[in-house]
Amino acid sequence: MNSIDTAFIQDVYNKQLESLNEEEKRKIDFDPLQLYFGEDYVINDQITIHQPCIQDFIDYGEKNIYSTVAPFACNTTSYRVQLYDMGIDWNEISNIELFAFLIKTINHKYSKIIFGELDFSYFELFEKNIGNSKQIILYDKTHHIEINEETRGRMCRYIQFMFNIFPPEEEFTSNKVLKQDLINNDRQKQLIQNKKKKNASNLLSMISFCLNHPGFSYKKNELREVGIVEFMDSVQRLQIYEATHALYGGMYSGFVDTTKIDKSQLNFMRDIYVMT
Q1: What is the three-class DSSP state of 101?
Q2: More confident residue, 273 or 143
Q3: No. of H helices and E strands in the chain?
Q4: What is the dihedral of CA 124, 56, 160, 168, to 10 degrees?
Q5: Long-range contacts of range 192-201, CB-CB < 8 Å, 24 or more positions apart?
Q6: Degrees (nearest 5) of the Cα angle 98, 162, 50?
Q7: Mean pLDDT of the residues in the chain
């Protein structure tokens, strides 16, 4: 792949940074090129995040890997219907408390692809005294590993950028009527999404598209070792190439009114903000 391809993750990274406040920006301590080239991200001497390659998805299953990263790409707002059905007000539970509950669903057989020997089943919630205040943490007493809010935040941010899956903006309210309206609206959205869900593999469709495209650089067996970020970049770049090429064809044939075209759509290296 040439140097143009690295623009994908840089674009995603820059776009997401625009939506963060200054305090949140200071917490982003990784280079986007680390993601593109599949480098390990060291959180501390006990926690390291690895990037899965296409072979990992083949071996362990697309659904299983995405289920593993789901707890790192959500917040209490995205789970408010489920919390409500459990009798929990999403306004009154912290993200780390929700995280502590969700990681219990993670299967170590699949999480080891990304987190190595770190086994989330050992972690429990504890209160830690820090000066005159108390902090909620997750602690693995067997292996003496601590995940506080800062550590959890770093892990979540890296996973979110890696898979381009971001939680919704947090939304809180103390108004009972508005709470019920929000819950009802979310429930309706979930029903619609469930109807649209298919059993077919999205990853398989993308792999088939790429391998049958003359501009794709890899052969089938070579693709096995490609990291998921680099692969998703290729999918998006090929789509942009086809769309831009068609647009130029329409312009030169006289079938397209150039005065109504956003000039950025003519740029083969234009920004990519969403990973399909």
Answers
A1: helix
A2: 143
A3: 13, 5
A4: -90
A5: 201/62
A6: 90
A7: 84
SS3 4: helix
The pair of three-digit structure tokens given for residue 157, joined into one six-digit string: 């941010």
Please report where in the chains the tokens 């508005």 appear, as a residue.
178
C-alpha 31/C-alpha 15 separation (Å) is 14
pTM: 0.80
Q: How many CB atoms lie within 10 A of CB 45?
A: 7
130 sits in which H/E element = strand 123-130
Residues 6+ apart with CB under 8 A from 108: 119, 120, 121
Euclidean distance between CA atoms 76 and 91, whole angstroms: 8
From residue 212, how far is each of 130, 156, 220 by CA, in Å? 58, 34, 10
* Backbone φ and ψ of 135, nearest 5°: -125, 135
Separation of alpha carbons 242 and 232, rounded Å: 16
Q: How are beta strands 41-42 and 48-49 bridged, if at all?
A: antiparallel
Q: In which residue are the tokens 């190595």 written?
A: 116
Report the run of H or E that residue 31 belongs to, with start and end: none
Map residue 140 onto helix, strand or coil.
strand
Predicted pLDDT at 94: 96
Closest CA to 149 of 133, 165, 169, 172: 133
